[in-house]
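Why do we care about 3D structure at all? Because function follows from shape, and shape follows, mostly, from sequence. That is the central idea of this module. The next example makes it concrete: a single protein chain, its amino acid sequence, and then its structure expressed as tokens.
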Amino acid sequence: MKKHIPNTITCCNLICGCIATFWAFQGDYMLALLFIILGAVFDFFDGMTARLLGVSSPIGKELDSLADVVTFGFAPSAMLFNFLCTIVPCSMAYIPYLAFIMAAFSALRLAKFNLDERQAMGFIGLPTPANALFWASLAAGWQWKTLFEPYPTAPAWVAAIVLAMMLVSCWLLVSEVPMFALKFKHWGWKGNEVKYLFLLTSAVLIVVLGTLGIAAVIAWYVLLSLLTQKRAKA
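And the structure:
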């Protein structure tokens, strides 16, 4: 019986991704964000549960990746697609479909992760949950703050900037840039300075910026990873 528990948790992640996708196409980015966050929680606990119960399996690994493609690949791409539909003119109706490039790169990232044995205590490239949370919170924050009202009046350069940011995130997903993981071998300060600094500043960003704080946290995570990598090479 216990061997089915981790896979059940993974399926809960998949279901959250499906619901998030539905709300993304409905234009309710806040609900979509909430279900992506819930999916990330399930994604965190499925692997942990499998290790604790000693029931890790190849099928569990494959199922986890399939669920992640939906929750952290397709769902945020659907949010970006719907968002772009609200701001690009009718004459450029093909532009929003470019959002699904991110889903393809997310799938490629997950495939690479399954075969890469270097990522035990850290990541090579941007993790898909981090990328999904960035875009979901950015879309939800935009909707919440109503930066431009109504959406169809948003300047054309907004779509250009969003697409440029998407291409950067696609590159980060499959890049060889080392990024730290919040995995602790011990709870002491020495050796965990970067992780504790990140957690402290992240809490401040979320308190100050609210929903947009999640996107700020992910951007700070990438920047801090780049800074620590540069310091390690020096």
